[in-house]
Every structure is written in C-alpha cells, then in structure tokens.
Amino acid sequence: MSSMNELYSRRATLQRFGTGLGLITLPDLLDAAPNPLAIKQSHFKPKAKHIIHVYLNGGPSQVDTWDYKPRLKEFGGKPLPVSHPTEREVGVALPSPFKFRQYGESGIWCSEVFQKTAAKHADKICVIKSMYANTPNHEQSMRLMNTGDERLSRPSYGAWLTYGLGTENQNLPGYVAMCPGLPVADSSNWRSSFLPGIYQGTYLDTRNETVETLIANIKNSRLSPETQRQQLNLLVKLNRDHQLARTDDPNLEARIQSFELAYRMQMEATDAFDISRETQATQDLYRASTVHGRQLLIARRLIERGVRVVQCFHGDVQPWDTHGDLANGLRNLGSQADAPVAALLTDLEQRGLLNDTLVICGGEFGRTPATEIPIGGGIGTGRDHNHHGFTVWLAGGGVKGGYSYGNTDEFGYRAIEKRTHVHDLHATMLKLMGIDHTKLTYRHSGRDFRLTDVHGHVIDEIIA
Amino acid sequence: MIFRILIFATLFGLTNSLSAAVDFDRDVATILIKRCIECHDSKQKKGGLDLTTQDSLKLGGESGSVVTPGSASTSVLIDLIDSGLMPPPAKGMTQKLPAAEIEVLVRWINQSVVWPAGRKLDLYERTTDIRGGRDWWSFQPLLAAEPPIPLTDHRVSNMVDSFVLAKLTEHGFTMAEPATKQVLIRRLYFDLTGLPPNPVAIDDFVNSQEANAYERLVDQLLASTHFGERWARHWLDLIRFAETCGYERDQLKPNIWKYRDWVISAFNDDMPYDRFITDQLAGDEVPYRDEESIVATGMIRAGTWNDEPNDPADYQYTRLEDMVHTTSSAFIGLTVKCARCHDHKFDPIRQTDYYKFANAFWSGFVGQSNLGGPSEKELGSTAFGWTDRSREVAPLHLLINGERGKPAELVAPASISTLPRLERVYKTAPQESNTTTQRLQLAHWLTDKEHPLTSRVIVNRLWQHTMGEGIVRTPNNFGFKGALPTHPKLLDYLASKLRRDGWSMKSIIKLIVMSNTYRQASVNVNQLEYSQTDSLNTTWWRANRKRLDAEQLRDAILATSGQLNLKLGGPSFFPQMSPEALEGLSKKAGAWGTSPLSERNRRSIYMMTKRSRLLPLMTTFNFTDTTLPCGQRDVTTVAPQALALLNNQFVHLQSAAFADRLFTLHPDDFDEQIKSAWLLAIGRPASDLEVNASKQHVLEQQDYFNNTVQLGAERTDALSVKGGLSVWLDATQRLELDADKRVISWGDSSGSSLDGQQPIDAVQGEPTIRPSYVSNGLNGKPAIRFNGKNQYLKLTAPPLSKQAFTIIAVARDASDDNRHHEIFSNWNSRGRSVNSLFLGTTGNGTIRLSDAFNSAGQIPDRNIPFILTGFNSDKSSNTYLNGAELASSIPLKGRVLAGPYVIGTQGNINGEYWLGDIAELLVYERALSRTELNQVWSYLSLKYSIALKTDSKSPRRLALASLCHVLLNTNEFIYID
C-alpha cells in the first residue's frame, strides 16, 4: 500500500538520471514512472474486485421499497408517536401505497416498486435496513455517501479504491461515473481531491447515446495510432524534462498520466462503451433503449474489462426526491430502475461475474414515514428527506445473499437495531475489496487522511 | 441523584476551583449563547424558557423556575444539562456539554447567579466554536498596521512583501529566488491580459537593461485593451453571466452582450469600484443615468430564467433568491440566501435580514414576462437591464420557512443587522422619482467608506486572480464557514489602499504584481522542507504554478497559431460545434448559427455562452457553471481533457495554421521553423537538445506522411478547368492598349465564343479613366494597374445567370485606408443596393463577398500579391486566400445578377475604386469542386509565384504541424510558472 511512495520515488529515479534529454532513451523515461493505475497488493484476499453502484439519487423511500412497515397503516392519517427533525415540516403518517410481499427462500420483504429484482434475486441480496447519515440535505449527504465527508474536497471512495488497488485494465479509466446530466453536488461526487488526479472518476453524460458522443474526441482524424504514439513519445519526453525542476507538483505527473490513459482509451473505449455489440436479447433484457438500461449494460461491459468502480446515477439532479405525489412518482421511478437492475444481476450471474462484483443499490438517505406538509398547506402526498434511517442493499462480491441486516423502528423512521452509518458501509465495502479502511491512507497537508476519517466499523456479519 | 453527586465529585477533584469567582461575560454568557439561546430566546422561547435576560431567567419555563440561586444541585437547569437532555441530541448524537462547561454553570448558580443589570444576550453577539457572531473578523473595521518589516529591507519591494515576509519569517521560511525574466513576462501577460507574450515582447523585456523595464511592462499591460477582456471574465463568473435563459427553451437574452462589453470597458477604464457596484445595482437610478449605466444593470438579470415554472408565484421568490445570492456573494462574500427560510445557522444574518436585502429587487420586474425583467419600453432603453415598476416599494413579507403560503411580518427595506455600525433604514424615494431608489441605497450602503466587507472581498479577488489563491481562500464566503485570511493585516492594508486610491482596482493589481512576492519563482530550493508544514503554500514561499483556464488555453492556442482575431467587443460569435455536440439540440432552442471563420477565432470572452450548449472544449477545461455565482473555478486533470487536446478538430486546425505560420516566417529554413515554434508556443528559446528532439520528430512524422498522403493537384502551367468559365481576363493576352499603355479592352480568353456565345470583354471607352498596363506589375508578371481614384473597366455582358458561382482574382491591394475597394461588381443604386454581387476589400484587408457576406475573412498583408476566391454553392458560400479557406457562411441567395458589371469600382456609383493591380480574373458560372479549385489555384500559383496554403497538405507541413500539436499539448504550455 505504498503506492504513492513508489510513484514519487520516480522523482528520485529522475534525479538519478540527472538532467538533460540526451541521457536517457524514451522507454526508460516511460518506465521510470510506475504506472499509478497498475494493480497493487491488497491488505487481505479480496472477496470482490469490482463495484457497480446503482445510485438512486434523491433519497429513495425505504418504507415504500425494502423496509416493510405494516404499522404505518394503523396510523394512516394520524400523527405518529415518534418524530425526528428532518429538512421540512412533516405531518401525519403516510402508509405506503404499494403492495408488499415476501420473496425467495429468505422471505425478504419488498414492494412492487422493485418486484422484478426481488422476485429474481431476493436470495442474492443483502438488505441493510439500518443505514443512517448526518444531515437531511442532498448536497451534504451525497458527498457523505460518495466521499465520506459532507464538506467539500475529499476524495471519493472510487478514487480511494483505484488509488489503493489500481485497476485491471490499463486502457480504461479505473473509475467511471455515469449520469444522464449531473447529480446534486456535481463532480464533487467523483472527485480525486488531494489524491492524484489520475484517480478522479471519469464522468460520462449518458444522455449521449453513441460512443463518439459519450466519449468526445475518442478518434483522431489525422494520425494513425503509431504516429500518434510518436507524438506522445515526444510529449512525454518534453514533459519529463520540464518536470525535472518541478518534482513536487503532482499535477504535472497527473497530466502526463492523463495523456497516456487517453491514448490507451482510444484502443479500447470504442469497444467497451459500444452496447450495440451485445446481442439483441441482452439489450432487451436490460431495456437498453432506456438510459438506465444502457448505463447498467455499459457498467457490466466495463467491469468485465477490469474497470474497478462504476457508478450509475439514476438521473439529472435528484429524481428520487419524492416530496410530493409519491404514489405515481415512485411507481414511475421503479419502472425505470427495476427491470435493468434485475437484468444486471441476472447477467452478472450468468457470466460468472457476480462473485467478483459488489453491486450496491441505494441513495444518499431515505424518506420520512410521515407526509411532508406541502408548501402553502394542504394534504401531503409525499415524504421528506430522512437521514435517521434508510435502506441500502448489496449483492454479489462476497456479501450474504437473502440476508436482512439491522432494523428501523416500527415505522421506519429511525435506525434502531445494528445502526449502520455511511462510514460503516464504506469500511465494509473496502473490506470486501480487500482493504483495511484504517490502513488506506494518504498524507496531505501534514496529516494522514482516510476515507472513513476516524470512523467506520466493518460489518463482518454481512460478509459471506 | 447519586450519579450527579459523582459528577460533582469528579468536577471538584478535577478543577479544584469550586470557589473561583465566575465572570458572567467571560464564562457564562459564552456557554449560554453557544449552547442554549438558539432555542431559548425571546422569540422561540422553547419550553416557555427564555435565557436572554436576567428577568426571563427568573421567570423560568413552562415547568417553573429553572435555577435556584446558590444551589446548583437543586436547579432544574443543571439537572437537564447534566442528564444530557439539554441541549437535545442532534443527528442521533448526544449534545451533552463538556464537563468543564457544566462546572462553570454549577459554580455560577452556586455563586448566586450573577447577571449584570440590563444585560441581554443575543445569539449573534459573539462568535462561538459553532457559529460566527457580529464580532467575526470580517465584520470588524479595517485595521491599519505598520509595515512589520521595514520597507527599507532589501527583500521588500513594497508593503505586500513586508506582510508576507513577516509571516514567512515566523515560520522560518524564506521566499523563493526571483523568477527569471522569461518566466515573469509569461506569467504577467497571462495574469493581466489572458494572452501569451509574443517573441518580440519577450525579447525586448529580457534584453532590456533599464531598471524600470518591469514596471513599464506592468503599466503597458494594465493599459492594454486586453486587460479588460481578461478581468471581465472573472467578474462574469461571479455574476453567473450567460447570454441565454437556460431551461428548455434557452432563449437568447437580447443585447446582453452589451453588459459584457460594459464590464470589459469598466476594467479597462479602471472605473472606481464603488461606481462599478453602483452602476450594476442601480444604473437606472443614478443621477448620471445614461445608456451605459442602464446597460450595467444587466447584471441583475443575467441569471437563468424559466418561462414555464411549475408555480409562477413561487418562482418569483426563486428569482429573488438568485438576485440576493448573486449580489451578496459577489459584493460582500456572504451567503445571505441561507437566511431565506430561517436565521443563518453559521453567520449573524437574521431571517429578516434576507428580506431587508431582498427588498432592493422586489420592487422590480421580478418574474415577469420579457425574459424576467422590464420590457424595452418599461426600461426606456434597448439595453437588457433592470428597473423598478414604480416609486412605490412593493410590500415584501418575511416567509416562514421561506414558503410563500406562510407570510409573516412585513419587512421594510434596510441594511442587514450583521453590521450594526452601518445599520440604516432605507428612505422612501423622492416624489419625482420613477423608482424606489432602494437599489441605489443598497449600493450606497455597500460602498460606504466604513463598510468592512466590500473592499476586503474585492481586493481578495484581485489577489486571487494574480497570485492563484486568495488571502481568504473561500472568495465567496467571508463568514464562519469560510476560510480565515492567511494574512489579515495585508488584506486590510490592501482594502484600505483601495479606498485611499479612489477605489482603483488597477492600483491594487499593480501593487501586487510589483511585489517580490508575486515575482518569485514557482520553485523554492527548500520546498521539500516547507511543504511538510505548508504544502498549500499559504505563506507564499513560492509563486503558485497555475494551469491555464479554458479561455486562456483556447486564446493561447489561437495566439500561437497566429489565428487569433483580436477584434474588440460587439455581439458574440458562435463557435463551430461538432454534429455530435449539437445532437439533441431542441428545435425550440433554434438552429446553431455558426459564425464566419474570422469571427470564430475571436477571444473566448466573446464566445456565445448558451447555457444548454456550452462548447465542450470549454467545459472540459472547467468553464464556469453559469447558473450560480462562481468565485473560483475547479481545476481538474482528466483523460477527456487529453483526448480533447489530442483529437479535437479545433486543435488540429490550429496546429496546421501554426505550421503554416512557421513556413511563412521561415519558408526554407527548417532550423528556424523549429526555433520559432518553441519561441511562439513556449515563450523561450529551445535548447539544442530540444531542437534536435523536435527535428527528429518532424522527420519521423514526415516519413509517415510521405507514404500516406495523396497530394492534391499536380502542378500545371495551363488552365485545365474551363467548364462553366464565362469570363477569363488574363493580363498576358488579348489586351488592346492606347498610346499611353492604358486599357481600351481586356479581352475574354474563356473561349465562350466557341460554344456560340459572345466573349465578355472588359472595356473602357473614356481615355482619362482607363487603367494602365504594367509589364512587370505583379511578381514580375503583367498586370492591369488601377489608380484608386477613377479608373475602371466595364464588362460587355453579364457573366452570371445562376446563384452558384466561383470568382477567382489574382491581385494586389495597394490601399492602406479603411475604405471599400472593389475588384468585381454589379452593384447598382437602383434597386440593388443590398442584393447585388461584388467581391472586394475593406478596412484592414477584410473581404466582402456581397453585402450578405461582408466580413468574409481578412487578407493578412494585402500589399503582397494574392489569389482571392469568392465561391457560392447551394451548400455554402466561402472565401479562400491562396487556396486556404478564410471564411464560410450560409449559401448566398437572391443575388440579382443582371448587369452592368464593372472591374475596379463599385457598380454605378462613382467610388470604391480599386487601388493596385489585377493580373487575372476568372468567373465561373458554377461552384467548382475542391479538386477543380486546387487545379486552378495550382496553375495561378505557379504562374505568379504565389505560395499556396494548400501546400499545408504537404508531408513536411503535416509533420511540422504534428510538432506544433505536441508543443501545444506540453505541460510547459498549459502550466504557467
């Protein structure tokens, strides 16, 4: 786990060579810098090698999906005996308008919103019902879920993982974030922050459908790969020489590496992102004509090629933010997400990829079991943000299938049993990927930083 | 109770200070303010308890008395605190007070609850460790400070250095060595003008022996018109400027480019900052109101605007929030908008303050039609500006939770309570006023000479955009959640100086860039040591290395390639977008009207900022978001940026143009081409090793292109393309001259007569206005020379009958004025003043191909012979100079093609005469193919020794372009030391 030391020992290497271009030949110059994306030794034997994070941004309602609370019906239209401060004012209990039933041998409860996923895969899924976060605001909670810190400028967990583990395919970014548009908190969700820039998530706007539009400038209209390599050889030579007198600037190294990665991407990206190379049956399974299906199918193609972390944000801004008209809104969102998610799990399993791939599905927080009182009064038809208790489920990648972990109170308001903070989820994700979250550190501004800061407990109970 | 006794015992044991006297203000008030009165104040009074005054404390809460003087152990207050019930747990975490604080309260009660008479606690009266109070540093008056290190010290160039060195010395650091002159001039050019220095400027500066050479350079750049173009961009980011509304329709905001030009001029003219603020806020209310000041109010409505919001009445408040947020963060670095729904959580900004502030805009045309502002008629101007609906202040109520359905008390326009020393209620407008004057009064408050924020915030920005980071590193937040100033005294010094110098921003910028702090190198020999404790360089032990931002990068590429069009001001240009980037552009948003080539090569600040369709090249390099105020852009380093620079068509074109530029500079000298490439791109001479590596690259690439590139037309000495040729005037043949060698007739060589038509000759019957024949007129070849006063020729018949045409002229323009000069024309004052066809030049060699295509590129040096082509097909109209495209536009349509046609003047007016030579003129009645064009140009090129730019397709040029491309991609190009 001394990747940075290795990287920066290159400075010493360069300094050993002295200055001047004539002294070393090109291959030496390239080799002198260890590839920062090369595979690195993990702390333990990993259960999972890849992560696909299906991010339902906006805060999906736990009590309308995986956290069945029959007692809400009893209190329908009446004030709940419990209440916790959230973003806005809430009113009476809002029973879920969706039908629930148990699925699989494990008997995991799920509503019709995710019925396809549950029907096919309940016994592969580990539902954590006792998640909690710190703040009922999207921006802070998005950053918490993705970077472990509500404040700005912390590296995302995807950046930490590619920093810690490298990636298996040197021709693709180690970490890809897809979204049709931008989620709340924009690029801070996949930022590398003080980690070297090469670990930043490569963002793709999936409103674009073709490879050429998805990854702009992927083709060079003038040069063959060989002549472009000549260009890059000269470029790296000039950049290395420039770097000799400026050895302590990580941005210069990051930019050198970004050109190398860009060059390599040209070889492989057109193939990796081209879902038309899938059979019609597979495309149909994912509903690849929809943006959600397309994203998940691309995600599978990427992890199949060795990409370490792929995040698929459901939509622009915060589509799961159902403050009003929950009954229709959530049904509609479910109809977009359910079938592709079920397809992803089916497909991963069929290809033998599910054992290696940790699939995560959830948002930045959940929603209140009580109605939100609409602006200007009236009867609430939606739910407010709720960071006190929410659900995230995991599948594959070494987690117990058909397993339900933790509980909220009888109304689904607040996690009370086996409370699981976002830091705990991160610690567990890292463990599954073979990393001790207390030991993956990076020295910045005079102190060692880690994804979980001083927090986080691994939930060993959910690891198979 | 046993538990509590235990605690007390512990406390006693720990502190052994049970008897020490409590100081109310120092010890108790701090705890109550920080921990209790957010809920237990006179307004909220949770549980009926108000802890802000002695009397209210005595009254207790709903369950009675909370303190028993002299007996903490029986006081409910202590019981609640000690048990962790108060303050209540938050976010699932206990908020129980630390033992030391409980101990203070215990002592306080045991010592009979001292409370100074009349003392009322206020949540915001002082800063605690969870919230800023009115004693927060940025709300205090500016402090004058003596230079901590005397100005006579040899390390000190001015006051800036004195403060910076004092801090460096505290840390045991020393400044880096001064930057080399080469580094310094590049840094200064980019910081002040956003453009790279050209080799001549570098040479002058580097070799100057004058002691004040640097200061002269600073003055020169501050006086440059490009200074405003650079610094206006920083301001446009702050006020979330774009030229369209955003959302589904994304309509154009007409004339808002005038606001952009106003900002540029304001920076160029060094408009005093107080006036700069006042005009933008209240240009319609100032006594000197004029068109310019009204243009300035465009700031208020430059944000997004939704013409179909879910709830239009609610949307008015969204618009209002945008205005409050933009102005409060831009002018005073405060997040006033956070107080829309509740008192600010972290800064002493009450909810009422939000509404006091918002009042300034509420009487305007908030959320109206007309793209969210007054119509031209209501404004009394065609500017895209702002004004009030009348002089009556529109009532604005505080909204509970910020919700429209829950109005509370009416809030009168006033300043915010954050700064009590400056607090004022705004007056009603005089009877004769058309507006409320609330914005004007807001501007007066902001520019009050005692205002502690306005000047601090702007000088911090000036520092940030020269040094790379602010003194306060959160430039839009000077509140509790913002960063503290790294050099508070320096900040105050600069802020005071700004006021003393008549709010001159240039004076502050000059002070900064004249400092040794600014002029130090970006590497320090001790950096390994220093970065251990100050890796962020907060003490300025070196200069920050800066990556060019999106505009600087694009402008620098164009400047280097020689293609940058430095035209100032005016409507924005539309960059060329790839079909991929335009995909999905809704019809509602209208077609993307790409501008002519010369316009497209203007500086980036003049690029159309259409919110739904920002140029990918710009956004890839962290262009501002345009929907929210942006005080500091992100700087990322990702593979898509590398892909853009490796493969984007723009970069290919500029690399080719750069190579052409090198060939023009040094046609036959490979070594000089390489050396110039380095000087132009990197701003320093290349080392021998670099020259060799570069040459080796070109030769390698040339091998590749030798094997792959198909050359265009073969060189030929005869004109082979004759289909559709209706007029061919060639000064080597078919001339009839008078005794003074003046042209009676210049005969058509097209051979049209062969297919039954009459030849179309150019004739002049009147001897005094005949142009002359010169045998060695144009590069040694015969040509017809026109005197620019009255000489011209008439065509004997119209040569064109269809809209498609190709006109090719070999000529030299000897004029040096800015007037029109025509080669070929059928202009006629009777009915064809706008729809005729002509080809000619105007100011600075700008080409005109009819009035519909009147800025059709530019001839860089019109006195040198050229081959000029005007072309029109059903797909496009184009102009070409020496075989290279100058400009393209939509097809010309509806040209009236009837005669008479003339050569050397403008139709039937007595004017616009050609001055110079015309050696050959070919007029085709059709659009030639690219191959045919190449063949004609090749023939003319050989005949007149005019180098064709199509030669840029030769292997050597392509190889050189590849080197140019590499240089534009280097770290040394994009990172400024």
Summarize the topology.
The complex is a heterodimer of chains A (464) and B (977).
Chain A lengths: L2 H15 L8 H7 L17 E6 L15 H4 L15 E4 L6 E4 L4 E4 L3 H7 L3 E8 L5 H10 L9 H9 L9 E5 L22 E4 L5 H4 L10 H20 L5 H23 L7 H7 L4 H14 L4 E5 L12 H25 L6 E6 L3 E7 L10 E4 L3 E6 L7 E3 L1 E2 L6 E3 L2 E2 H11 L9 E3 L2 E3 L15
Parallel strand pairs in A: 1-8, 1-9, 5-13, 5-16, 6-7, 6-8
Antiparallel strand pairs in A: 2-10, 3-4, 5-12, 9-12, 10-11, 14-15, 17-18
Chain B lengths: L1 H14 L8 H12 L18 H6 L16 H7 L16 H12 L48 H12 L10 H13 L5 H9 L5 H11 L1 H14 L18 H12 L4 H10 L8 H6 L15 H21 L18 H12 L6 H4 L3 H4 L17 E3 L7 E4 L27 H9 L5 H16 L20 H13 L4 H10 L1 H4 L7 H7 L12 E2 L2 H12 L17 H4 L14 H4 L15 H5 L18 H9 L1 H17 L4 H13 L5 H21 L16 E6 L4 E3 L5 E4 L15 E2 L8 E7 L2 E7 L5 E3 L9 E9 L7 E5 L12 E5 L3 E4 L16 E7 L4 E5 L2 E6 L12 E2 L11 E10 L5 H15 L10 H15 L1 H4 E2 L1
Structure notes:
The complex is a heterodimer of chains A (464) and B (977). Chain A is built from 13 helices and 18 strands. Chain A is an alpha/beta fold and 464 residues long. Chain A has one domain: Alkaline Phosphatase, subunit A. In chain A, the strands form 5 sheets. In chain A, strands 1, 5, 6, 7, 8, 9, 12, 13 and 16 form a 9-stranded mixed sheet that branches. Chain A has a 3-stranded antiparallel sheet with strand order 2-10-11, with no helix packed on it. A two-stranded antiparallel ribbon of chain A has the order 3-4. Chain A starts with a helix and ends in a 15-residue tail after the last strand. The N terminus of chain A is likely disordered. Chain B is an alpha+beta fold and 977 residues long. Chain B folds into 5 domains: 122 residues, no CATH class; 139 residues, Orthogonal Bundle (serine acetyltransferase, domain 1); 175 residues, no CATH class; 79 residues, no CATH class; 229 residues, Jelly Rolls (Sandwich). In chain B, strands 4, 8, 9, 11, 15, 16, 17 and 19 form an 8-stranded antiparallel sheet that branches. Chain B has an 8-stranded antiparallel sheet with strand order 5-6-7-10-18-12-13-14, with no helix packed on it. In chain B, strands 1-2 form a two-stranded antiparallel ribbon. In chain B, β15 and β16 form a beta hairpin. In chain B, α15 crosses α18. Chain B is elongated. Chains A and B meet through α8 and α9 of A and α23, α28, α31, α33 and α34 of B.
